[in-house]
Amino acid sequence: MKIPSFAVIICAVYSLLVFGYAVSDLLEADTITYDYERIDEVKKECASVLSSASALRPEFDIVYSLKEELSFVDGDWRQEVGKAPIMPFDNRDVRKNSFDASNPLNLVSFSVKDVDLAHRSRKYLSVGGFLIMGITRDASFERSGFDGKPRFQIWPGNSQLSISFEGIYTESKKNGGERVLCLLGSTILPSREPNPMDPWEWVNVSIPRYDQPPLMQDDQILLILHFPRTFTLTNRVIRGEMRSLNPKSNPKYFDEVQILSQLGKSTKYEFGSGKIVSKACDPYPFQDSLLNGGINVYKGSRFCEILEEVTRYQAFTVVPNWRCNGTDEFCCKLGPYTSGDEIKATDGDFKDVKIYVQNLKCEQKIAQENVSFARVSAVFRAVSPLENQYTAVTRSGASNMTVAAEGVWKSSSGQLCMVGCIGLVDDEGSVCNHRICLYIPISFSIKQRSIALGRFFSINKNNASYFPLSFEKLVQPRELWNHFIASHPYYSYSKIDDAGAILEKNEPFSFGTVIKKSLLQYPKLEDTEAFLVSLSLLSEDLTLQVSGVPDPFPTPKRLPRTVVQLEILSVGPLFGRYWSNGSLAEEENPYHTKAEYTEKQLLLNVSAQLTLTGKAYNNFSALSLEGLYDPHVGKMYLVGCRDVRASWKILFESMDLEAGMDCLVEVVISYPSTTARWLVNPTASISISSKRNEDDPLHFGTIKLQTSPHMYRKQWEDVLSHRAVEGIIRILTLSLAIACILSQMFYIKHNLDSAPYISLVMLGIQALGYSLPLITGAEALFKRKASESYEPSYALENNQWFHITDYAVKLLVMVSFILTLRLCQKVWKSRIRLLTRAPLELHRVPSDRRVLLTTITIHVIGYVIVLIIHSLNTSQRSLLEKTHLISTRNSHVLQGWETLLEEYVGLVQDFFLLPQFIGNFVWQIDCRPLRKLYIIGITTVRLFPHIYDYIRAPARNPYFAEDFEFANQNFDFYTKYGDIAIPVAEIILVIAIYIQQSWNYEKLRQALAVGHCKLLPLGSRMYERIPSQSVEAELVCGVHGNIAQDKERDDAE
Question: Which residue numbers delimit the SWEET-like domain (predicted)?
Answer without folding.
Answer: 715-1002
